[in-house]
Amino acid sequence: MIVIRSEFDGFCAGIRRAVSICAGLRNESDGCRRIRLSHLICHNREVNERLGIKVVADADFVGNGMETGLTVVIGAHGVGKGFSEKCAGIRNLKMVSAVCPVVDRNLNEIKRLAALDKLDRLLVYLGKNGHAEADAAREWMPDGSFFIACAEDAKRLADSGELNGAKVELMVQTSFSDAVFDAVCAVFRRAGVAFEVFDSICSDCMNRRKDAVRIAEECDAVVIVGDGISSNAVELAEIVRRHGKSAFVAMNASEMDVILDSGVVNGRARVGLISSASSSKEIFEEVLARLEAWYG
What we know:
The structure is a single chain. This protein is an alpha/beta fold. The protein is 44% helix and 17% strand. It is built from 11 helices and 12 strands. It has helices spanning 13-28, 45-51, 81-88, 101-115, 132-140, 151-160, 178-190, 203-218, 231-242, 253-262, 281-295, and strands spanning 2-5, 35-37, 54-55, 71-74, 94-97, 122-126, 146-148, 168-172, 195-199, 221-225, 246-250, 270-275. Helix 4 runs parallel beside helix 5. It is flat and about 65 Å long.
């Protein structure tokens, strides 16, 4: 068996920055006792486990029960208005942003629109319900905005007439499916909606997806190093399968063992390995070592 290794073997720049900020705070404070995360720093439970910083719990907000001098780090996907207001009401609470700059740019644009006395355009946000980034964006969206999750939602919105004659700003979750994004744009064009895209899908996500296609074409199966809760990891697996090859997602070396023990990669002459944006190079190398040792 030959392992074909992708050049994408670790974090994207935004997640690397977020994890580095957290690690720096942890080291400066000599531990994690007085640090909390707004939510998972990224969509990878193994990375969060190794980081060792707890996610803030709802109970921490009861009766201003937050420890004096506690630092709360806003994770890479940002936070909604409700969380921000909760934290603002607590004295001596330090907030540190580890939000991905690309995500932050989108959130700042939404906040800018929400602060206007009169909107000069309608905001349509395309994202996945339940995703931390999309949920945060949704909370900041001004009245009169629209949240959609698929091309069918876009068609219903266009057919409703609510966008007629309006200047529309289309924004998309940074890790969203490019196939669905393209389909939504096509729906709006056919319906004659006058829209402009504020910012598209993250370039790192797009480049990883292109490399997933390349690896799928060269291999019999592909392992995505990442967590199944990650939109990026799931999208990479779907891309591989759309190209007729088997795809498996392994969060860590232990999950790679489960895949190997199941026998699903037995007999594969060439296996590709690519990291999702929220998995570290360290984890990638551990999974690679396990895969090579199995067939060594």
